[in-house]
Amino acid sequence: MYPPLRRAVRVTCLFAALAAVSCSAPISFRKIVCKPPAGEFVVSPLSDALRELEAGKAAKDPLVASGHFYDSARLAGQHALAGENGALGIYNQAVGLLVERLGEANALPWGRTIALGAGGRTLRGKLEPGAPAQDRHFVSVATLAFKGSLANTQAAREGVGAPLVAVSPVNPDSSSTFGAKQPHQALTAVLRFENAATATLELHDPLETERISIAGRNPVLAANFTAPISMFLALARPDKLGLTRLLDPQKYADTARLVRLQKFDPNRIPVIFVHGLDSTPVTWAPMYNNLMQDPEIRRHYQFWVFSYPSGYPYFYSASLFRNELIRLNKVFPAHRDIVLVGHSMGGIISRLMVTDAGDTIWRAMFGTAPADTKIAGKSRKLLEDSLIFHNRPDIHRVVFCSAPHRGSQMANHWLTRQFARLVRIPTFLTDTRNLVASIITADASSIKLDRAPNSIDTLSPDNRFVREINKLPIAPGVIYHSIIGDRGKGDGPDSSDGVVPYWSSHLDGAVSEKIVPSGHSSHQDPAAFEEVRRILRLNLNHRSE
């Protein structure tokens, strides 16, 4: 095929893929009817309760079924201590169904004691330390079945207890502490018996507690770290925002924010994932789930994401990220040094966090010092935030995945140029562009634009900002790594991931460079999971290797 035509076909297919991605759900779930776990041990009360639930009889009196689950957990727990095969599975399942059933009946015993059925059983509840004050809805992971492209990896821990998803009410003020608008948290329920008729229902945070003391033993606490994220993604469908935020970034301006995926812990190192063009934080789910399988990483790291409308020029998105990091230092001043992991445009946004530009780019763009440049008002503030910046001293390490440091020629293709015109430019960027145009004119080697630039424009190798930023080194003391795709061709320095060529994604001075057999989505390749795992483990030693 003639090379220009081949490129045109590739770009057209790329745009078709972008539209398709916004329609298909990467993960979904359904509630299932539990059956007793396989094993030699069988407890009739659990079977009775499951039959009643399936027949709908238990809906008339939820405490009757809860009594069955209580009895099942008590009997199975005794046999589990004796080591009988299948008994622990029945205990865990019965505890999870007990919590779910009591929750559906609005009868959970937090801060009180309740009676279960007519058998004289009493149950009191004990929340996990630091539990939120608001009511939460609890779902037993045993009753969830996930499917889809993001359902292949489960980060779970075998042990005692029933893994739950705790769903909190929507919090309109969540951004003040970087929380999700509706948090979905992994918890584990344990039923501790004093005698046949009295027990305490306990909730534990499995990220905080790895083992519990029960019946004179110290078993591992069971957990499922994937289910909460999977359930949230299936219900909220944030993946649908990728293309819409690219085409109309200002409409979704309030979605530019830093979000933590778990409770803040000053002793855990923050890892912040930054997505790329036409994407959302959902793109990091495979890597997150794989990393969460590693007990050492769970023990020492906490995961965050930076989400932003990808239609903005990337240097403006970087200013939004920088402001969120400044706010992070105010809200959580005791946080450990940060590790950034950025894919594609998220990689070059991350690079701006570790580059000390000062006013160098400003002077290169305007030919004058900031104080001598006649721009005022909101446009000046926007330009100062975007063009005058220093490296973030709290960022210790960066992993770049398929990052177009020197741009991508695909941004110059005529089809890409036409697609770029579909992006609605925010008014404030247009006003700023008009002011700038009255002061300077781009040189002959720059792309001439009759409109304000968007993210696609600023990915061109000819873009003035791209050229200027590549003249500046990454700040001393920052450790950085590259992960680069080669479409499985094994052609090394002559490679391309189909969007970004090696000459653009390669960085001299990188401590390591890993070429993985993937296209542009190098961050979703299993080899990339292992490389990031290796880097995070290495980071624990704080070596400058």
Give a description of the structure.
It contains 17 helices and 17 strands. It is α/β, with parallel strands linked by helices. The chain folds into two domains: 28-230, no CATH class; 237-371 and 383-424 and 449-539, 3-Layer(aba) Sandwich (Rossmann fold), CATH 3.40.50.1820. α3 runs antiparallel to α4 (87-104), α7 packs across α17 (526-539) and α9 (314-331) crosses α12 (377-387). The longest helix is centred in the first third of the chain and has 20 residues, at 62-81. The radius of gyration is 27 Å and the shape is elongated. Residues 1-22 and 441-449 have low confidence and may be disordered.
Sum this structure up briefly:
Helix content is 34%, strand content 17%.
Question: What structural class results from the helix and strand content?
Answer: alpha/beta
Report the principal-axis shape: elongated
CA radius of gyration: 27 Å
CATH superfamily of the largest domain: Alpha/Beta hydrolase fold, catalytic domain
Low-confidence stretches: 1-22, 441-449
